Q: What sequence folds into this?
């Protein structure tokens, strides 16, 4: 059984990683077409000398960090509150926001912002993108954290209360530490969807808020430029290192 | 990076940097300026330009329709200017701030969509035709040649309702801007008949597949086609005999802009022959600027793909803004074709 | 219980401002009329909903549901053993988990392009097969429904792995061991014991995969070459190309309503809800 699982896992990880590894391999190809020419860093130089890409990357990071931070906190608190006692209205809202196709979310938020800005003299920009990302990542966070809460069960917290802890202490000392893996998973998910999002972002982005996926999309639409390969390799590498570090920290 | 710097960086959002130079926000099609165009303007006028790009008129319109998008200068295609003007989105041009208008080609001095050049400055233009591999014998010269069963699986059409339906209309002898439902339905039947032959509906993405030989014939815009031909000499381009559309992207100033003077200065900068010529050299587009054409090398200026000779130019048609009812029928037909 | 009220406050705020308000706007749009060149105008009408009963749009809706269901089923099939593997790994469990996420830090578009790169006529798969002498003419791998399905499965696989993993991880390890080592038929043991226990995760994962697949429009456009219309493309086209916001809103509202009913039926019988 265990052997079969291991064999399957190899195939599974190959399926996940080989397409991107090949793509990354061709980022070192000197030719812009998919015929191997010779080894070259020319596309990486292009990435680091393109102010548009650099700025978009920075925007993406800022947006993803803020959106993840806000949605993880709000989502975790919400999951906990709902776990204590459900609320049909709020749960319904979470479900609905989840079942809304991205394009609809994007359009709806654009309509809202444009409507609100008639009175406020604001414009579409990085703030609207952050708000939009928070709007769609909260339900992901709530779902992941809720799954974790249910597996923990109420007994631990009840025991703590019986032993004299108040509500706040029980949450802070008992439930929250047990929730940490779920919260991390939720934050990772939120970070992924935020960093990844093209559809909604492109709708609510304005001046000063072009993100990396938007730049990649524009390039992709002009044809498969190896610069995309180089960007994808760099981003994957960066997050790979980040994950390795977090793994080491956790083991320590 | 120190943690404090990172924090400051995260909180100090780009909108509130200490740069006090005046700012101009420009939203343009991708690959439509030379690398030195924007820095050159910033240096000369001591301003900062926020430059971002879009891929379709629809993307642009979705942003600016509200009238508070934050952009100053945008570049809609000629037949979008009418609706944008009716929506009150455009600021009228002040010709006394645009001496460079004299550089425009005679064809674009009084275009049919904006005869007085009151709203937009013609920037770059292109046509839609057929790119094909030279090994196809006989070489396609008409839209009807794209209904050839021998091209099955190696043929693409544009993923654009206007161009795709337009080619079908032209094939059976109707106008590109046809409004008659009977004519449009006939064009739909042509499109559905052609669909089994198609590999896909592709826009600029088809360029690489033409170069690599995956695709042998494609409906494509002349500028994109020229990029493919430059990379693969086996390719050639034909402006179809039945007629074909021309599009002209125009620089306009949005009414919401509070930097009208600076926006005009930018438009006039783009009209300078040298600036425009640089852009053409870098992006292989066709400029509406006569004075700039004169600065271009002979090979570019007489390139029959980018600047078709007068005989061919005369067969072209500038698509008009369609009445709402027609637009609606066309949208439906487009969905039917895609769903067939 | 005071704590709960404060904890829910930000979520209520989010719901009112960033979900309910835009939703009301879309709902209102769906009863209005398209302006001459786009935009939304009076008078109020039901026409946008009547248009939906057109066989053209019904077919598109059915096709999208079938595609999303197929993608969800395939994701589940691929993800469950993977989640089981990660949970049962004695070492590097977290690393394995992160490896699932790793490809998904890159843009969704990049992942889609990776498959275009592999599947096209002069792509790696066709080139390799031709070099090996297995085929002489390139196989038409790209621009068909199979490619779209592949793209969707590849795109949303981790959304299935993570919740299943999260549930399995909380199960009693001895139970897992027992189930896996049970006699000659560990497969049956897994199906009877572990799968039912993992049901919350499976449901959560299915929802997380099904929904984006249903609304997907980039994948059918890029891998399908724009040759089929899924409901995501329909909505997207109404909001951009056709600029018929009212009809696009009506399609969206209907879509949301259908999915909500579906989820309600699905989750009503399940004692443990998602949220």
A:
């Amino acid at each position: 059984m265990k052997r079969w699982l291991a064999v399957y896992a190899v195939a599974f990880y190959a399926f996940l990683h080989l397409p991107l590894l090949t793509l990354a391999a061709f980022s070192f190809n000197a030719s812009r077409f998919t015929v191997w020419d010779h080894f070259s860093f020319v596309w990486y130089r292009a990435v680091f000398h393109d102010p548009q890409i650099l700025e978009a990357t920075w925007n993406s990071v800022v947006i993803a960090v803020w959106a993840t931070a806000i949605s993880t906190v709000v989502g975790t608190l919400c999951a906990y509150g709902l776990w204590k006692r459900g609320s049909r209205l709020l749960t319904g809202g979470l479900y609905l926001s989840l079942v809304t196709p991205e394009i609809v979310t994007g359009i709806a938020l654009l309509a809202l912002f444009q409507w609100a800005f008639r009175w406020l003299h604001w414009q579409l920009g990085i703030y609207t993108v952050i708000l939009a990302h928070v709007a769609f990542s909260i339900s992901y966070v709530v779902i992941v954290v809720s799954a974790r809460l249910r597996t923990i069960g109420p007994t631990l917290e009840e025991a703590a209360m019986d032993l004299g802890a108040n509500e706040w202490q029980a949450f802070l000392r008992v439930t929250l530490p047990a929730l940490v893996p779920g919260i991390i998973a939720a934050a990772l998910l939120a970070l992924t969807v935020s960093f990844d999002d093209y559809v909604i972002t492109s709708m609510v982005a304005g001046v000063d808020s072009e993100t990396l996926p938007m730049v990649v999309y524009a390039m992709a639409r002009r044809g498969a430029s190896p610069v995309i390969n180089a960007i994808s390799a760099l981003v994957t590498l960066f997050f790979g290192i980040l994950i390795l570090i977090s793994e080491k920290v956790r083991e320590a | 990076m120190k943690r404090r710097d990172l924090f400051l960086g995260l909180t100090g959002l780009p909108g509130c940097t200490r740069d006090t130079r005046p700012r101009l926000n420009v939203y343009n099609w991708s690959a439509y300026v030379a690398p030195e165009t924007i820095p050159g303007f910033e240096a000369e006028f001591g301003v900062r330009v926020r430059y971002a790009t879009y891929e379709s008129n629809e993307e642009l319109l979705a942003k600016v329709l509200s009238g508070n998008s934050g952009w100053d200068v945008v570049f809609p295609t000629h037949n979008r200017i009418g609706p944008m003007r009716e929506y009150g989105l455009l600021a009228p041009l002040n010709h006394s701030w645009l001496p460079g208008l004299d550089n425009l080609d005679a064809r674009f001095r009084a275009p049919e969509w904006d005869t007085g050049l009151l709203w937009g400055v013609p920037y770059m233009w292109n046509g839609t035709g057929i790119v094909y591999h030279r090994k196809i014998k006989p070489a396609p010269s008409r839209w009807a040649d794209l209904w050839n069963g021998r091209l099955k699986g190696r043929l693409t059409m544009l993923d654009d309702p206007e161009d795709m339906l337009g080619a079908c209309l032209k094939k059976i002898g109707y106008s590109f801007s046809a409004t008659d439902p009977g004519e449009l339905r006939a064009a739909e039947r042509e499109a559905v008949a052609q669909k089994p032959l198609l590999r896909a509906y592709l826009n600029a993405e088809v360029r690489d597949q033409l170069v690599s030989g995956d695709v042998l014939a494609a409906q494509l815009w002349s500028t994109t086609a020229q990029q493919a031909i430059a990379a693969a000499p086996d390719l050639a381009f034909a402006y179809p005999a039945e007629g074909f559309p021309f599009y002209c992207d125009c620089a306009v100033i949005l009414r919401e802009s509070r930097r009208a003077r600076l926006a005009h200065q930018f438009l006039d900068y783009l009209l300078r022959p040298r600036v425009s010529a640089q852009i053409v050299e870098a992006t292989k587009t066709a400029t509406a600027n006569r004075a700039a054409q004169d600065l271009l090398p002979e090979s570019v200026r007489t390139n029959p793909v980018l600047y078709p000779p007068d005989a061919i130019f005369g067969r072209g048609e500038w698509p008009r803004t369609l009445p709402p009812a027609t637009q609606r029928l066309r949208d439906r037909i487009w969905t039917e074709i895609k769903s067939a | 219980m005071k704590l709960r009220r404060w904890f829910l406050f930000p979520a209520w705020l989010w719901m009112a401002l960033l979900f309910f308000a835009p939703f009301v706007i879309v709902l209102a749009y769906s009863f209005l009329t398209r302006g001459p060149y786009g935009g939304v105008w009076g008078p109020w009408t039901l026409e946008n909903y009547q248009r939906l009963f057109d066989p053209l749009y019904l077919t598109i809706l059915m096709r999208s549901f079938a595609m999303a269901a197929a993608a969800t089923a395939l994701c589940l099939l691929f993800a469950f053993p993977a989640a089981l593997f990660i949970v049962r790994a004695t070492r590097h469990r977290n690393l394995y988990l992160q490896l699932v996420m790793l490809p998904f830090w890159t843009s969704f578009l990049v992942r889609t392009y990776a498959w275009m790169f592999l599947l096209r006529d002069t792509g790696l798969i066709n080139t390799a097969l031709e070099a090996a002498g297995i085929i002489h003419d390139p196989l038409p791998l790209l621009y068909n429904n199979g490619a779209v399905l592949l793209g969707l499965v590849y795109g949303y696989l981790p959304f299935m792995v993570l919740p299943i993993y999260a549930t399995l991880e909380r199960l009693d390890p001895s139970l897992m061991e027992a189930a896996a080592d049970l006699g000659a038929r560990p497969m049956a043991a897994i199906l009877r014991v572990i799968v039912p226990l993992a049901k919350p995760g499976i449901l959560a994962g299915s929802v997380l995969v099904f929904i984006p697949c249903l609304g997907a429009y980039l994948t059918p456009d890029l891998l399908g070459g724009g040759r089929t219309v899924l409901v995501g493309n329909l909505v997207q086209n109404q909001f951009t190309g056709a600029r018929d916001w009212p009809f696009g809103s009506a399609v969206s509202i209907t879509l949301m309503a259908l999915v909500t009913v579906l989820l309600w039926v699905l989750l009503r019988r399940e004692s443990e809800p998602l949220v």
